[in-house]
Amino acid sequence: MFKVFYEDLEVGSKEAFGSYTATKEEIIDFAGKYDPQPFHLDEEMAKQSVFGSLCASGWHTCSMTMSMLVDYMKDKGFAGMGSPGVDNIRWKTPVFPGDILSVKSEIIEKRESQSRPNLGLVKSKYSVFNQKDELLMEMVTNVMVLKRGD
Amino acid sequence: MFKVFYEDLEVGSKEAFGSYTATKEEIIDFAGKYDPQPFHLDEEMAKQSVFGSLCASGWHTCSMTMSMLVDYMKDKGFAGMGSPGVDNIRWKTPVFPGDILSVKSEIIEKRESQSRPNLGLVKSKYSVFNQKDELLMEMVTNVMVLKRGD
Predict the structure, then answer these.
(1) Does B93 touch chain A (CB under 8 A)?
(2) How far does the CA of residue B107 sit from the closest CA of chain A (Å)?
(3) How many domains, in total, are found in chain B?
(4) What residues make up the domain containing A63?
């Protein structure tokens, strides 16, 4: 089932993947449930905000990114076992309706887990861009990866 | 409309708020869209994972927390203007179906914005608990807050 394990991952390696269109309907639906601030829901209110126009919740941007990451991991057979957390998220440019998101990633660190000998911890930086190659979000996060154990 | 501005917020002040029930349906619905890893979707697969049982995506936990925070901000008339980013998220304990989430917050830092003179930046630590008072998640995040300007 899995093809890529902890031992196969190299610090410094880079990947590009994903294509996710942030529709207006999905932006408003997500914000309505989880981040009902006016600038994520209403075009007129958003014009008066720092964002200037209706835009996605930052948490929606994270979630759309996660969707692309999981698709990528499944496609590669990556033995991801969840995450203990995120080191940093910076929302740089708003995500507007119709934007198409894509991801560039770089592995910046890896180490074996002390508490779980069958797992390693891989730290990666993810940069999310729109169709105009504008940087939307940068995030450094950690994934627990199964060891092949040979 | 707004009642609480940047000048009104004190470093060290603490609040407790929110009550959000993480239903199984919502856990699976969110994960299906944004984090379709087996342990967030399927009870049998989850038993074999580090989590031991079907649990929410960490991004869903963040989103449920944001929902509680926005409700709280609206209730208090808090002049929140969005966020430039998050400093740290640690997912400590899984969120299982039926868990009831609540939040404790503490303002840990505040400073005026250099680039936007009508805003200040407020850094807070959020701790999210379940109904058994187990710590589910800790997060340090930043909110831009409008100044009253008097």
Answers:
(1) no
(2) 18
(3) 1
(4) 6-146
